[in-house]
Q: What sequence folds into this?
C-alpha cells in the first residue's frame, strides 16, 4: 500500500494533506485528502469520511468545506476521496455529460462495459481507502463515520445502511435518497449496473430501507432553495421510508439555502459535532 | 453607480453576493464580493475590506477564507475586491509574469505607460468601491476597517497608514511590509510608478512610518514556513519601524504555517474578532 504525498499544509493547528496512490480497485491513481488535527502523542482519533457530489474531486470540500476548525476542536480525522477514477484509458460519458462517467462514479461497482474495469468506487470507499488510511494515519478504525453531499450523500447513506456495524454515525447534505426514482440516479445506475432495476436496490437508500436495512440514526439537511430538490433529491421519500421502518431521521429544511458549498459549509460544523457525539459515546 | 448582481448564496445565516460594476477608476468592469450577515431590520453594520494577494481575484478569499461564520457572529460586512483591472485592452505583463500586471495591481495608481489609464487600484479601493458599497449595502461608513494578505497586506497597511481617521482597525496576513526593499515590490512600484524611488515611499508601509505616518495599532500574522518570508515579506522591517515610531504592533510568528489560504483561514476569525473589538469600541 504505497502512497505519495502531494502537499502538506498546516491549518487550524493540524495538517491538511493531499495524497495519491495506485488503486487496486480502480486500476488508476487516486487522489484524496486527509486532515489530521493536533493530538497528544500516540493518540488514535475517530475518522470521518466525506463523499463529494457530481463533478467534484477531493479539492472542493478541502478548499470550501470549512471543516478544519471543527475537526480540530473535536479531534476528528477528515478523509475526502475523489468521486470517480480518472486518467488516460478511463471511459467517461460519450456525450461529456457532468452527471455520468468522470466525476460521477455514484459509489457503485460497475458491472457494465466499458465501466466495469475502473468504476469500482463502492469497493474503493468501503474497503481499499479505509485500509490505506488506517495504515498511514493515526485513526481509531473502531470509530468511523461517514457523510456526504448530493451524489456523495447518496453514497454516505447507502454505505452506512449496508455497514451499520462499521459506521457509528451517518449524515448528508442534500442527498440523492432514491436514485432509482430520479433522473440522475436512473442514468447512473442504468449505465453502471444495467437495466435490471432489482440490482439497483442495494445502491438506493430508500430501497435499502424498504428491503430491511437499518441504521441507528440519520441526520439530513437540505436547503429549500436547492435547485435540485424537487426533481433529484426528494427528501420526502427518505422521510416516509424511515418512518415506516422506524429509523430515527433528523431531517432539517434550511430556509434560503441552495445546493452549493455555501450551504454545506454553513452546517458542516454542526454535522461534525453530531458525528463526534456518536463517535465518542 | 450601477451594479449588477452575479450571484447570491445564503451562507451562515447571511447572504454572500458577487457583484460587477463599470469602474470609473479602472475604466473596466470590476467584480467584487460582499457578505452581509443576518441583522435586525434597519441596522447598519461595520464593514471590513479584505485586499487579496498576487494572482487572486475576489473569489479566492470568498471560497477559501472561512470568514463568514465569524462575520455572522460578530455582525460584520465583509468586502473583497479584485486585485487589478482585467479585460480586453488592459495591458498585462509582457512576459506574462504572475507578479506584475493582471492580478498584481499592488494597490497603487499607476503613473507610467501603458498602465496609467487602468491601473488605479489605490483610488478604486479607497474611494470608488467604498462609495459604491455604501450606496448598495447596509454599512455604517463611520465604522470601517481593512485587512489583507501578502500584496493585499501591503495594500491594507498602506491604506490604513494614509487614512488613520477613516479605518478603525488594520491587520495583515503575511504582508509585504517594505516593497521598496524586496523584489516583488521593486518590480511593481518601478513598473507602475517609475524609477524615482521617492515616489514609492507613500506605497511602502515601512517608508510611510519612517516618514511620520501613524496608526493606532496593527496586527500582523506570518507563518514561519512561509516560502516568501525572508526575501519578500521581511516582517522584521515593520517591527523595527513600528518600534522606532512607537506604533503598537502585535506581530505573531505562527509555527509551521505557509503562505496559503490554509494559513489565512486558520487565523481569519481571530483577526475579525480583533477588528470587531475596535469597530464596536
A:
Amino acid at each position: 500500500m504505497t502512497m505519495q504525498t502531494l502537499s502538506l499544509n498546516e491549518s487550524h493547528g493540524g495538517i491538511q494533506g493531499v495524497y495519491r496512490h495506485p488503486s487496486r480497485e480502480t486500476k488508476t491513481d487516486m487522489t484524496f485528502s486527509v486532515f489530521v488535527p493536533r493530538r497528544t502523542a500516540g493518540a488514535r482519533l475517530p475518522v470521518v469520511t466525506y463523499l463529494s457530489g457530481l463533478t467534484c474531486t477531493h479539492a472542493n470540500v478541502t478548499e470550501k468545506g470549512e471543516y478544519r476548525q471543527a475537526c480540530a476542536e473535536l479531534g476528528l480525522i477528515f478523509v475526502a476521496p475523489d468521486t470517480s477514477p480518472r486518467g488516460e484509458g478511463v471511459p467517461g460519458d460519450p456525450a461529456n455529460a457532468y452527471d455520468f462517467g468522470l466525476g460521477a462514479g455514484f459509489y457503485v461497482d460497475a458491472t457494465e462495459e466499458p465501466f466495469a474495469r475502473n468504476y469500482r468506487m463502492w469497493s474503493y470507499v468501503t474497503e481499499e481507502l479505509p485500509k490505506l488510511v488506517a495504515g498511514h494515519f493515526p485513526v481509531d478504525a473502531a470509530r468511523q463515520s461517514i457523510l456526504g453531499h448530493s451524489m456523495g450523500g447518496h453514497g454516505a447513506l447507502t454505505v452506512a445502511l449496508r455497514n451499520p456495524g462499521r459506521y457509528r454515525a451517518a449524515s448528508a447534505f442534500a442527498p440523492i435518497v432514491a436514485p432509482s426514482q430520479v433522473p440522475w440516479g436512473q442514468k447512473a445506475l442504468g449505465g453502471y449496473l444495467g437495466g435490471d432495476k432489482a440490482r439497483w436496490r442495494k445502491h438506493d437508500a430508500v430501497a435499502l430501507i424498504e428491503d430491511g436495512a437499518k441504521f441507528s440514526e440519520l441526520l439530513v439537511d437540505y436547503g429549500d432553495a436547492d435547485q435540485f430538490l424537487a426533481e433529484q433529491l426528494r427528501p420526502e421519500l427518505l422521510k416516509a421510508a424511515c418512518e415506516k421502518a422506524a429509523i430515527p431521521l433528523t431531517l432539517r429544511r434550511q430556509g434560503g439555502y441552495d445546493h452549493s458549498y455555501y450551504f454545506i459549509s454553513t452546517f458542516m460544523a454542526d454535522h461534525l459535532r453530531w458525528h463526534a457525539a456518536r463517535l465518542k459515546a
In short: The first strand of chain A starts at residue 4 and ends at 11.
